[in-house]
Amino acid sequence: MREVAFGVLCALIVSTAAVSAAPSVNGSTGQINNPSADVLREGQFAAGYYHLKDGGVGVFDIGLLPNLEIGVAGFRYDDNSFNKTNINAKLGLLPETILTPGVAVGVEDIGGVRSRSYYAAASKALPFGFRIHAGIGNGRFDGTFAALEKTINPVSVLTGNNAFPATTLIAEFDGRRMNYGARLSIVPGLKVDAGWRDRSAYFGISFTN
What we know:
Number of helices: 1
CATH class: Mainly Beta
Structural class: mainly beta
Distance between the termini: 33 Å
CATH topology: Porin
Radius of gyration: 17 Å
Shape: globular
Largest sheet: 12 strands, antiparallel, barrel
Order of helices and strands: HEEEEEEEEEEEE
CATH superfamily: monomeric porin ompg
């Protein structure tokens, strides 16, 4: 029975990571600027839009093959100073389990439009709704990067029968600076993000099927 329960818990962690995955501002599934070790399942997709200080970015990711995620991020600036489109890829090497972190490797901006960046990332859930991420990479990552997430479960509000949406608070170091944000799960798959990135406010919306 203990072996069965352990297997069920492991499956729940893997499925939860895939369902909760959302695209980062740079396209790959992750936090704010950083990628995570989460990889979309084959046939699963995630799409979103983020409004930034000087423009916006539309993102789209799809699980093209088992453990392989391909994505695109189209940056459009208000002054057309440096519009660009990044092509990204991420390969899951190890799934996250009760005892071990998930591990993935990837590359952002494959075409080298601005800064081709290779990375390796690990992600692990902790008790009490915490999850940690850490990685190493070159290019825009400039060495190590890391993030801490804390998910707050829905709580009843005093005025009515509604519940505050499940919210994930994020603090990350992207290799150059700290970023902070909150990701609200409005309905299954639909998330709203807002916070402080690259010394300015941002907000966005995404959907993962």
